[in-house]
Amino acid sequence: MSAEVATETRPGRVGLGRRALRIGVIPGDGTGPEVVGEALRVLDAVKEGFDVELERFDLGAERYLRTGETLPDEELVRLAGCDAILLGAVGDPRVPPGILERELLLRIRFELDQYINLRPIVRYPGVKTLVPHHADTDVDMVVVRENSEGLYTGAGGFHRKGTPHEVAVQESINTRHGVERLVWYAFDLAMRPGRHRKVTLVHKTNVLTYAGDLYQRVVDEMGAAFPDVETDYTHVDAACLYLIEDPSRFDVIVTDNMFGDIITDLGAMIQGGMGIAAGGNINPDGVSMFEPIGGTAPDHAGKGTINPLAAIGAVHMLLNELGETDAAATRASGSRAPSSTRCAPARWASPRPRSATSWSKGCRREPPRRALRHDAPRRSAGDRLLLHDRGPAAHPAQARSARRAVHRGWVARGEPA
Ligand code: IPM
Ligand code: MN
Predict the structure, then answer these.
(1) What does the alpha-carbon distance between residue 43 and residue 346 come to, in Å, rounded to a whole number?
(2) CB atoms within 10 A of CB 410
(3) Do β-strands 288-292 and 198-203 pair in parallel, antiparallel, or remain unpaired?
(4) Cα-based distances in Å from 36 to 1, 31, 93, 153, 240
(5) What is the pLDDT of residues 312-352, one digit of tens each?
(6) Helices 176-190 and 396-407 meet at what angle, rounded to 10?
(7) CA distance readout (Å), 401 to 145, 323, 360, 372
(8) Does residue 293 line the site of ligand 1, with CB under 6 A?
(9) Residues 357, 370: Cα–Cα separation, whole Å
């Protein structure tokens, strides 16, 4: 079959040499619809060499209040049939907390296994922030937030609810599988052009001694498989301090779901505000969803007062994830900052040279943490994490990325499957 006549149903249908991207659009609640409207105008302006089919979804508070539905299964199936999804925001003061968040937003993240929540924190030159001592170049990092487990799974429950002896349990679920695929993504990202080969684990290992220990061990093990990447560790409370005091110490932050949620709001503020911060819920092998992370801002809805740049940044990330890097770069050149392509997760702009001094400023040089832990059981060579022996190239996630690249037509479009 020649490239010209190759057709696929998804992702990225190719017909007569032109790719059609089916983009699911969930405008959602509050200011979601208006910022998504602006972002779609940008998408329309930058698309070149490919077509876009928009598939709109009526999901969010209005539908819930009208019909009682949050995310009917058939809508989920339609979402799963898209190449990517653009989401405005969900949440509404008329709906009790948790309903739309859990049954719509989190359900999409979980059901589509969007296990990475990728949140670039970059500062566009000239943007003023609340932290006057930050130079533009000090703020350039990506938070790789776990997006499929942790405290967000909903595990837990009440006992004797409503009584004086009430018990409320909210459990954090952390699986080795989940932590490994997350941490692998972070290390792989740190190696990409434009990044600075440093991964910082942000956790609370001094208190969360089970979950934190698992995270730390996986980072140590994975670090050995990525010898060119420096690893560091910061407690989450200290990370908040450093995000203000010296953000240049961070390149790639890897963290759990809840800590990632919290520190990325702070991250948005050192970028210049929630109106600028974009994020992606990524399933590297499936359907990813991109969103401005600022929420619904219901007080501003309909007033045109919310900056659409975060939604436009979400489109930028979406295009990069789908391999439409030229279109993404066009969108970047339309903003005031050519370097703003740095806000995209993949195939970043050219590396920013960083002096050794600016690097070492933020880096603690410590012996590997495992060497400090006398209680850590010694592993035999045989039961060491397989990654050590196979090297990063052999991690299943990498093989899957390569397959996906071919499947999506980035590498060998049109070759017989
Ligand atoms: C976010 C939001 C969501 C989260 C809420 C709306 C469930 O705060 O995307 O950061 O906590 O993940
Ligand atoms: Mn949040």
Answers:
(1) 18
(2) 15
(3) unpaired
(4) 38, 9, 20, 28, 30
(5) 999 999 999 999 988 888 877 655 333 332 333 332 222 22
(6) 60
(7) 19, 12, 32, 35
(8) yes
(9) 27
- Beta carbons within 10 angstroms of residue 337's beta carbon: 17
Place of tokens 């979406």: 318
Count of C-beta atoms within a 10 Å radius of residue 177: 11
Q: Do the Cβ atoms of 97 and 302 come closer than 8 Å?
A: no
pTM of the predicted protein model = 0.79
Q: Could you say which ligand is closest to the alpha carbon of residue 100?
A: 1
Residues comprising the chain, all counted: 417
**What structural domains does the chain harbor?**
14-413 (3.40.718.10)
Distance CA 226, CA 228 (A): 5
Ligand 2 centroid to 258 CA: how many Å? Answer: 9
Write down the residue that tokens 């296990």 correspond to.
Answer: 115
Give dist(CA 86, CA 287) in Å, integer: 11
- Spatial distance between the Cα atoms of 413 and 411, rounded to a whole number of angstroms: 6
Question: Ligand 1 center to residue 150 CA distance, Å?
Answer: 13
pLDDT tens digit string along 138-172?
999 999 999 999 999 999 999 999 999 999 999 99
